[in-house]
Amino acid sequence: MNMSGAGILIKSLEDEGVKTIFGLPGGTVIPMYDALYDSSIDHVLMRHEQAAAHAADGFSRAGGSVGVCFATSGPGATNLVTGIATACMDSSPMVAVTGQVASKAIGTDAFQEAFILGISMPVVKHSMQIRSAAGIPGAIRDAFYIASTGRPGPVLVDIPVDVQKAPAEYRRASGHGESFPGYSPEPPEDLECIEEAADLVRSAERPVLLAGNGVNISRAFAQLAEFSEKFGIPVATSLLGKGAISDDHPNRVGMIGMHGHAAANRAVTNADVIIAVGTRFSDRSTGKVAEFAKSARVIHIDIDNAEIKKSVGADVWLIGDASRVLSALAAEISGSAGGAPRAGWLERVRAFEAAEPLARNSGDGAVHAWQVIEAMDEVLRGEAIVTTEVGQNQMWAAQYHKALYPRRFVTSGGLGTMGFGIPSAIGAHYGGGGMPVVCIAGDGSAMMNIQELDTCARRGIPIKIFVLDNNCLGMVKQWQELFFNKRYSNTVYSRRPDFVKIAQGMGVEAFMEDRPNGVKLAIERAMNVPGPALVHFIIPESDNVFPMVPAGEPLENMML
Question: What is the pLDDT of residue 340?
């Protein structure tokens, strides 16, 4: 069957099971959009390409399948880069398809030409430019295969406009990976040290499981909880590991790191063995690396052997999928660990939490972030996907929100991308199987992609956005307050935008709340709106995020 290259592209995406694409048309992708006109694929027309990439990312994180976004050449493609880099840092599978100027014009500085392959190279798992219409099915099959296998990540596919127009016979791709003989998505498991790892766990008196995003990616939730329960080991998480074990689980001690829970940081600091599962030991997690868990032996479990000893030295390592490796290690230990010393350790860890709980300031007549988040949890009871923006709002959400189920906490970790929350909530709506979606935002980061409220209104996307407005760039201001002698350079705004009017102007129901006794009612009101809704919460400019570990300091040097 003869088709245009653009028709072949859309048919190839349908073959991959794609149901939703996020994007924005432009000159070099008009053929793609013309072919899309007759497709069953639902294209979500965004207001900005960066938001399209974040939406595709949120789609992947909430549902586990590959997100797809479209953009035209030049500025359309470059606008995707922040979203692609966000997905790359957090190992989120995505296929970004960009248009390109005609093949003969490449390299001539043609209108809206950009070398997107080179620009994006450091932040993609793979990229390719398709030079023939007949090559499209195989390239798309390979793109999805690479994006979704092994350690997931974004793949960019660039298609010149003349290739989109060129006729070719459509042949469905039958295999994958033939063009990449060096690509090994599932590296051989390396369990050579499993006996040594088992011995370390058996003999440990103060072990800690440290769960990262790899647990979420490999869906090793049951194996993690079973390992913790069977051997009496407390579980700390990284920011992206949040949800890997229920925040209501008795062995969970919270998030580690710069703004981690005090109990989690104390547990890791006092541990004698750390079993790190699917985590890359980010600097935000470890604090001063030389002082990180300096009394502990480290067992590192990861699918990517490039992560071993990259940041934190591992004494023992096991390479492979987290679910399979945890099961194999549990079988090797054979249930002989535990006993009084381990039970005493669990009690000691729980005492850390009792001694240094999260702050819950109140009684001053103001609304505080913790009140909004805990009221939200009371209303939602875990039955929602929560996305966040980046900044103080993100850390408050990570600290106070109880993620009771996996893959329901969606946030930008490695890149820390302001503007991620609202569009990722849109993607999570489409990828999350009908689950309610809430975005916790700050006033600074909400403004970075606030144009997507129009997307929500046009499409009737029923996400709920809770803006915690302290009229400043709160996280940077906090650093200026604590470490730069309160020299607030360009972090406090001279006026407060009216988020209610902005939302209403875009067709989104919105209201403001600044009374503590109105917080829960406002959240309930928003959740009862059939479409999108925004609640503008006014919170004090003076509120800061604690605990806080100063940059370059060990985790035990928490400011409480």
Answer: 46
Q: What does each C-alpha distance from 168 to 3, 119, 142 come to in angstroms?
A: 6, 30, 19
pLDDT surpassing 60 at residue 479: yes
Cα-Cα-Cα-Cα dihedral sign, residues 117, 120, 123, 124: negative
Please enumerate in sequence order all residues whose Cβ is within 8 A of that of 299, keeping only pairs 6 or more positions apart, or say none: 197, 200, 201, 273, 274, 275, 276, 314, 315, 316, 317, 318
Chain mean position to CA 112: 31
Q: Read off φ and ψ for residue 34, nearest 5 degrees.
A: -65, -40
CATH number of the domain to which 21 belongs = 3.40.50.970
d(CA 94, CA 492): 36
Do the strands 273-277 and 385-388 form a parallel or antiparallel pair, or are they unpaired?
unpaired
Q: Which of 33, 36, 16 is nearest to 24 (CA)?
A: 33
In a domain, 476, yes or no: yes
% of the chain residues with pLDDT over 90:
94
Residues 203 and 330 in one domain: yes
Answer yes or no: are the C-beta atoms of 358 and 395 closer than 8 Å. Answer: no
Residue 364 located in a structural domain = no
CA separation for the pair 269, 395 (Å, rounded): 21
Q: Please count the structural domains in the chain.
A: 3
CA distances for 4 relative to 17, 111, 142, 266, angstroms? 20, 23, 20, 61
- How far is CA 251 from each of CA 248, 255, 503, rounded to the nearest angstrom? 9, 13, 42
Model pLDDT, residue 179 = 62
CB-based burial label for 365 (10 Å; 0-12, 13-18, 19+) = exposed
Task: Give the whole-angstrom CA distance, residue 276 versus residue 265.
Answer: 14
Residues 126 and 239 in one domain: no
Helices 421-431, 452-459: axis angle to 10 degrees equals 30
Of 219, 248, 236, residue with least CA distance to 402: 248
Q: How do residues 6-26 score in pLDDT, each as one tens digit?
A: 999 999 999 999 999 999 999
Q: What is the pLDDT of residues 266-305, one digit of tens each?
A: 999 999 999 999 999 999 999 999 999 999 999 999 999 8
Rounded to an integer, the average pLDDT of 333-337 is 66
Token digits of residue 360: 């819950």
Q: Are residues 259 and 373 both part of a single domain?
A: no
Same domain, 11 and 125: yes
Domain, as residue range, for 17:
2-169
> Burial level of 366, CB count in 10 A (0-12/13-18/19+)?
middle
Q: Do 487 and 447 share a domain, yes or no? A: yes
Q: Is the dihedral of CA 266, 270, 276, 280 positive or negative?
A: positive
